Amino acid sequence: MNLLTITTTDVQRNFKKVLDMDEPVVVMRDSVPEKVVLPYDEYVRMVANQRRYLREQVEAMLDRVHEANKDVSDAELDDLVEEALHAAGRD
Questions:
Q1: 3-class state of residue 69 by DSSP
Q2: Measured distance CA(14)–CA(31) in Å, rounded
Q3: Other CB atoms within 10 Å distance of the CB of residue 25
Q4: How many beta carbons lie within 10 A of that of residue 11, not counting itself?
Q5: Which of 4, 24, 55, 84 could disulfide-link 38, Cβ–Cβ 3.0 to 4.6 Å?
Q6: Cα(62)–Cα(37) distance, integer angstroms
């Protein structure tokens, strides 16, 4: 992916033009990538994708925990919770 790059000085001089761009722009400071300016809709889509990915990861982890502990009785689970609360100083 070729990203358009622009210096911080050019951003200062041409801020309106940067805002009018329809593609992400990498802002360089001293020849080092510093920030990315991107259209708001793309940002919203990116955040939604990240949240969906994280939710899928948590659900997969919970499925693995559930599967690994499917034979633990309610009484054993209650004992483990009490033990954890005690260890955390919340008893």
A1: coil
A2: 18
A3: 20
A4: 19
A5: 24
A6: 36
Hey, CA dihedral for 12, 14, 30, 28, is it positive or negative? positive
Distance CA 41, CA 52 (A): 17
The tens digit of pLDDT for each residue in 59-71 reads: 999 999 999 988 9
- pTM of the full structure: 0.64
Q: Could you tell me the two tokens for 52?
A: 């969906």
Instruction: Quote the tokens at residue 50.
Output: 């990240």
| 37-59 confidence digits (pLDDT tens) | 999 999 999 999 999 999 999 99
Decide: 28 and 34 in contact? Cβ < 8 Å.
Answer: yes
Contact call for residues 37 and 25 (beta carbons, < 8 A): yes
Is 27:36 a contact under the CB 8 Å cutoff? yes
| Torsion of the alpha carbons at 5, 9, 13 and 17, rounded to the nearest 10 | 10
Q: Helix, strand, or coil here: 57?
A: helix
DSSP-derived secondary structure letter, 23: S
